[in-house]
């Protein structure tokens, strides 16, 4: 998709690197910047109205999380959709979200319960409208609420690092999580959180991610016989 000539909302000078990063991050996930699209400094500076320095810093940060590919003196481009990377991220994210729910839900503050309920309702609205990029952001914030209430900074960091691939998963799959009633499944998790039932919330998260886990294992796990024949690949 061609870049806009000029952004309608000029970049604020405060926290410039973060603002540029967020603009590019959102542009990749909502499709403004398409997979494989070449990212030229002069076009990005014209679009965002900033110098090259914060743009290069943002691009390097995006490369670290797999959304941008950089080859010195050759190209800088939006990373193509990597289905295996997405599958791996969804698989691991499900395990982390499940454990976080079990750990955090029994002691959730009322404010967190309110946020989960609000996000569940937002997910229902976005599912109905078919706005998958926005749905991805909402679901991501919903699940990260559990990690952020565990008090485990490493868990939060790892889960947030997997978020871009989870968001890409939501954007490219027409039937996320292989369910026809995603809003109801998310609402059930929010209700379990309101009851402070960590085991129930964890079980519901596990069940939601189960089809993705099964597909991941079916696609990528080697059979025992293959492992016996070639233990190292």
Report on this structure.
The longest helix has 23 residues, at about 200-220. The chain has helices at about 15-30, 40-50, 50-65, 85-105, 110-130, 130-150, 155-170, 180-195, 200-220, 225-230, and strands at about 70, 75-80. Helix content is about 65%, strand content about 5%. With about 230 residues, it is mainly alpha-helical. The chain folds into two domains: about 15-80, Orthogonal Bundle (Arc Repressor Mutant, subunit A); about 85-220, Up-down Bundle (Four Helix Bundle (Hemerythrin (Met), subunit A)). It has a two-stranded antiparallel sheet with strand order 1-2. The two termini are about 40 Å apart. A hairpin with a 3-residue loop joins strand 1 (about 70) and strand 2.
The CATH superfamily of the largest domain is known as GntR ligand-binding domain-like
Characterize the overall form: globular
If helices are DSSP runs of H or I spanning 4 or more residues, what is the number of helices? 10
CATH topology of the largest domain: Four Helix Bundle (Hemerythrin (Met), subunit A)
Number of strands: 2
CATH class of the largest domain: Mainly Alpha
The name of the CATH architecture of the largest domain is Up-down Bundle
The run of helices and strands is HHHEEHHHHHHH
Report how far apart the termini are.
39 Å
**Largest sheet geometry:** 2 strands, antiparallel
Instruction: Specify the structural class.
Output: mainly alpha
Beta-strand residue percentage: under 5%
Domain unit count: 2
| Arithmetic mean pLDDT | 85
Percent in helix: 55-70%
Structural Rg: 19 Å
Q: Outline the low-pLDDT stretches.
A: none
Strands side by side in the biggest sheet: 1-2
């Amino acid at each position: 998709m061609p870049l806009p000539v000029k952004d309608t909302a000029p970049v604020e000078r405060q926290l410039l690197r973060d603002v540029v990063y967020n603009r590019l991050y959102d542009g990749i996930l909502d499709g403004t910047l398409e997979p494989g699209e070449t990212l030229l400094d002069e076009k990005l500076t014209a679009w965002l109205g900033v110098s090259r320095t914060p743009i290069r810093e943002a691009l390097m940060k995006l490369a670290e999380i797999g959304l941008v590919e950089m080859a010195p003196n050759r190209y800088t481009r939006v990373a193509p959709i990597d289905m295996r990377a997405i599958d791996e991220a969804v698989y691991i994210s499900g395990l982390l979200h499940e454990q976080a729910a079990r750990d955090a839900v029994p002691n959730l503050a009322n404010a967190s319960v309110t946020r989960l309920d609000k996000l569940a309702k937002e997910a229902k609205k976005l599912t109905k409208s078919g706005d998958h990029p926005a749905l991805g952001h909402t679901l991501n914030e919903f699940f990260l609420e559990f990690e952020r209430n565990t008090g485990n900074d490493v868990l939060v960091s790892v889960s947030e690092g997997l978020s871009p691939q989870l968001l890409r998963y939501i954007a490219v799959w027409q039937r996320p999580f292989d369910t026809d009633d995603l809003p109801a499944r998310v609402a059930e998790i929010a209700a379990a959180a309101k009851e402070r039932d960590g085991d129930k919330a964890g079980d519901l998260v596990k069940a939601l991610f189960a089809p993705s886990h099964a597909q991941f294992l079916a696609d990528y796990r080697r059979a025992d016989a293959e492992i016996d024949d070639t233990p190292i690949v």
